[in-house]
Amino acid sequence: MEMVVVAPPAPGRLEDLRRRFFATPLQAVLSLACLTIMVFLAWKLLNWAVFSAVFTTSGGPEACQAAAGACWSVIAARWRIIFFGLYPYEEQWRSALACVVVVVMTVLSCIPVFWTGRRIALVWGAGTALFYVLMKGGVLGLAHVGEEAWGGLALTLFIFVTTCLVGFPLAICLALLRRSELPWISRTTGLIIDGVRSLPLISILFTFAVVLPFALPQWLQGDKLYRVILGSALFFSAYQAEIVRGGMQGVPTGQEEAAMALGMRYWQRIGRILLPQAMRNALPATINQFVISFKETSLVIIVGFFEILASGNAAYGTGEWRFAYVEVYAFIAFIYFVFVFSLSRYGAFLERRMSISER
């Protein structure tokens, strides 16, 4: 007679919580103590940020100083400086529209129908060109606004987008050069990549912004903004090149050998066989690199650019709002959180869609 073994029922949620946090008396005491501290801190934060906060500008800074909570009135009074920086007041609609263009471009890039090299290049190229025309002006009846007047969120997004737009193709080229069969090419490329990766980004930005003009003729110097973007793109490409190369190493060598046996040319093997699978393997690390690059845009404040962090400093650093710096930084942190969290959640969605995490 065959014996049937019945598996024990899966523990319920309450039983699982009891086993994980209240298995022993000491563990129960520690869990309750941690829970009490978390509830206390959450209540204090909620009371400061919402219940006791001041949201309107009717009472002015005096009403904020008299209140026990946060002073969100500084955001209501100085939001234009935070978002637009030094951009001319009457032209700030162009800066706002340029930010919308970047968001739309990013959303289109996340739609699978645009996941081809030609379409994604068209979306990013057209979006960046439209962003530049809106910000710079000088055509289509738009007043000219020089790069020295750009600032706020628009400048942060511009640096991030152009860094990725220039750095990503450069990263693919560096990855391909490093796996070249010619030793002098692969070793030279590896030396360049490792040399850039060994330097902090701030030193590269300082070099491109301040030192490089002394080594270049006047006609080759260009604007400081574009030199900083080039340095940021070089730093991005060095790290992304290693990510792409790691993805290539995850592709079985037999596939490329089979493509060679079928008579496919080099660029056909790279574009149709190797790179699609390599980018699929490298997707989690690539999303992480995009997140890091977006956060690193705040470093350009060191070389004199009025990005969103510098705009926040100006929002509370002048006039009667000097006491409200915590609220300004909290608001800027929330803006960074929205963009970074959206990128990370989209990366998690792509991992589930492509089943990368199961490999």
TrEMBL record:
Any GO BP: amino acid transport
Membrane topology value: Multi-pass membrane protein
Location within or outside the cell: Cell inner membrane; Cell membrane
Domain (ABC transmembrane type-1) ranges: 153-344
InterPro entries: AA_ABC_transptr_permease_3TM, ArtM/GltK/GlnP/TcyL/YhdX-like, MetI-like, MetI-like_sf
Molecular function as annotated in GO: transmembrane transporter activity
Entry's transmembrane regions: 21-43, 93-115, 122-143, 149-177, 198-219, 328-349
Keywords tagged on the record: Cell membrane, Membrane, Transmembrane, Transmembrane helix, Transport
SUPFAM superfamilies: MetI-like
Domain of life assignment: Bacteria
Protein's UniProt keywords contain Transport: yes
A Gene Ontology term for the protein's cellular component: ATP-binding cassette (ABC) transporter complex
UniProt entry tagged with the keyword Acyltransferase: no
PANTHER family: INNER MEMBRANE AMINO-ACID ABC TRANSPORTER PERMEASE PROTEIN YHDY, MEMBRANE COMPONENT OF AMINO ACID ABC TRANSPORTER
Family listed: Belongs to the binding-protein-dependent transport system permease family. HisMQ subfamily.
NCBIfam families: HEQRo_perm_3TM
Protein name, per record: ABC transporter permease
Organism: Mesorhizobium kowhaii
